[in-house]
Amino acid sequence: MAESTNSKPILLEVKNLKKFFPIQKGFFKRVVGQVRAVDDVSFFINEGETLGLVGESGCGKTTTARCILRAVDPSAGEILFLKGSGERVDIATLSEEEMRLLRGEIQMIFQDPYASLNPRHNIFDIVGEPLFVIQQMTNRAERQARVAELLELVGLRPEYMQRFPHAFSGGQRQRIVIARALALNPRLIVADEPVSALDVSVQAQVLNLMLDLQRKLGLTYLFVAHDLSVVKHISDRVVVMYVGKIVEMSPTDELYYQPLHPYTEALMEAVPVADPRIRSAMTELEGDVPSPANPPSGCYFHPRCKYAIDICSKKSPELLEPRPNHFVSCHRAHELQLTGIGDP
Ligand code: SF4
Predict the structure, then answer these.
(1) Is residue 113 part of a domain?
(2) Of the candidates 248, 282, 243, which has an alpha carbon nearest to the alpha carbon of residue 266?
(3) What's the rounded mean pLDDT across residues 81-87?
């Protein structure tokens, strides 16, 4: 599966990643089961590419992102990262100290810009902190110059550095979060729902800024989102997850035009489309994501799938590649004509 889809090298390769959380019961905390939050997930991201990672809440996408950042330790699998030095390391096995040294190369942007900025620190302290702590840039004037440069890069005025987070709107706060993430010249940015907490009009501005920064700085993004509307314009390829597993993975245009998995088709519901014929062909996704502690038999999506047949509840489908670079796990992928919304 790990074959670069452009001429750029693979920056991040996740191989057979698993993250299970034990279910404990009773006084002695006996382990009685496992929550399979991420269950044998493999994908890669080329340098300079944006990979969208999509699924409803509880599908394992955030846990996958947290494993990549080693915010949680994976249960199994490899997370291979190509460092700026050219060395390839397995993030899954790095020590705390090795991970600290890698922090500059991999940064995270969180969903809630209100929660991720300390209200008692001014913008100079917030954006300059990684420069001081990790890069050991102790000279204040040097830090000020770099913070001013970073603020300009994200479209904010350098004189704002003396202000505190409460003086800014949601969109401006997310720009500040991005400026801080850029401080150490990262190569990979893991963005977990970076625009979900923002108004729709502001969302587009922040997405455009991220695209602009990618072009200028050659950044690579793993962009986590709960629906397909946000990732459409920013991603080169999209991975769709359901109950800890990848159900579809494809170049973006093809996924939106010709989805192969019924879950992907159902997620299209959230994407605004002008054509009423397409809108009326869509069906609403009913029911909830099953618990990864106790998933359904066979294909995990079968209780919610309008195309389910007998085999679906009995046998779990494999992830196959029916078209080049387009992977899907559905028993009926070869015969279903699903509704997409993109242009051919
Ligand atoms: Fe639906 Fe069956 Fe395909 Fe699962 S395998 S998505 S239940 S048609």
Answers:
(1) no
(2) 282
(3) 95
Q: Are residues 134 and 69 in the same domain?
A: no
Which pLDDT tens digit goes with each residue over 288-335?
A: 889 888 899 999 999 999 999 999 999 999 999 999 999 999 999 999
Per the structure, the complete domain to which residue 153 belongs is given by 124-185
Residues 92-119 as b/e (b if ≥16 CB within 10 A, e otherwise) read bebeeeeeeebbbbbbbbbbbbeebbee
Can you tell me which atom of ligand 1 is nearest the CA of 312?
2
Residue with the smallest CA separation from ligand 1 atom 3 is 330
The rounded distance, in Å, linking the Cα atoms of 180 and 326 is 35
Is 221 within the bounds of a domain? yes
What the block records as the tokens of 128 is 């300059």
In a domain, 143, yes or no: yes
Atom of ligand 1 nearest to the CA of 262: 6
Q: How far is the CA of 147 from the centre of ligand 1 (A)?
A: 51
DSSP line for 99-131: HHHHTTTEEEE-S-TTTTS-TTS-HHHHHHHHH
Q: Determine which residue's CA is closest to atom 5 belonging to ligand 1.
A: 330
Q: Closest ligand 1 atom to the C-alpha of 331? A: 5
Q: Which atom of ligand 1 is nearest to the CA of 300?
A: 4
The per-residue pLDDT for 2 is 59
Confidence of residue 197 (pLDDT cuts 50, 70, 90): confident
Residue 249 lies in a domain: yes
Which of 246, 260, 289, 305 to mutate for ligand 1's pocket (most ligand atoms within 8 Å of CB)?
305
